[in-house]
UniProtKB/TrEMBL annotation:
InterPro entries: ABC_BtuC-like, ABC_transptr_permease_BtuC
Protein name: Iron complex transport system permease protein
Record-stated family: Belongs to the binding-protein-dependent transport system permease family. FecCD subfamily.
Keywords annotated in UniProt: Cell membrane, Membrane, Transmembrane, Transmembrane helix, Transport
Main location, first listed in the record: membrane
Amino acid sequence: MGFTTILLLLVAGLVLSITVAVMLGPVAVAPGTVWRIALSHLPGLDQWIPVTWTRPEQYIVWEIRFPRVLLGVIVGGGLAVTGAAIQALIRNSLADPYILGVSSGASVTATLVIVFGAFGILGRFALPLSAFLGSLAAMLMVFALARVAGRISTTRLLLAGVAVSMMLSAVTSFIVTMAPNEKGIRDAMYWMMGSLAGAQWDTLLIPTLIIAGGTMILLTQYRSLNALLTGEEAAVTLGVNVQTFRMLIVIIASLLTGTVVAVSGSIGFVGLMIPHIVRLMVGSDHRRVLPVSLLAGAIFVVWADVCARLVLAPQELPIGIVTAVCGGPFFVWLLRRSSYSFGGEK
């Protein structure tokens, strides 16, 4: 199957997934109604679309479900693209966007907000902004620990990320145990397992711009990402400034991951699993891997959120549980595939 065909099928699949995800819920909505409501909010089209839906349907579709589904698209695409870049950078098939400790940094500040109401002056932006600042602080800590004699190696970067992640996870656990009430503990644990329930229209723009911008930058660097798969020495001979390029990728990956964690909490396995599936489909060329990962990750998170909403309805599962249930069996299957290769190595 050609690359263009795969892209077109994924785009069609994403549109279909968005439609079905908005339709499903305690109140079912017809697909035509979903898109009529959506199109009626576009400037210039509202006067051409007759109102055939009820006020409750408009509120459910436009104010609740559409922002949530679109946030799932942003989160899934961002995590998958970041995972593909990190795996190329570290040349490790088990690398994922959270390996640099970014998620743990966001969790510390987010739990402070949830449990103790810190940064209350920021209002409803307190949680996403504090989580982003926490992820940024974790990234700076990892950089500081990994830099020796002005240079950063992949090994030091991995070790620093693991060390910082463990330390900050311990801090998060301590904050949770000090919660003054049971609700604070439950809310903090729920956030740390990921959720799209807090999606609102006015919080979608900035994550969308950051994910789109980071993806475009990575796409312009696909040759360097491909070169890294052959090893650092080979990449240098191909003209890649490995130190500078590594720093660029780490900064972009941390920015994308911090943004995602800030708006959705920690959702695991997406950036770990999706790039592997994509390489099985299109190979290891990042000119193809990155856009396909973006679309595949978006589709996966949209459906994971549908499962999280409906499996135990009216209760809701953290989306991280759903992605973990999918991710574990996938890697068992991948482990048993003798024909699978990562970066050209069997």
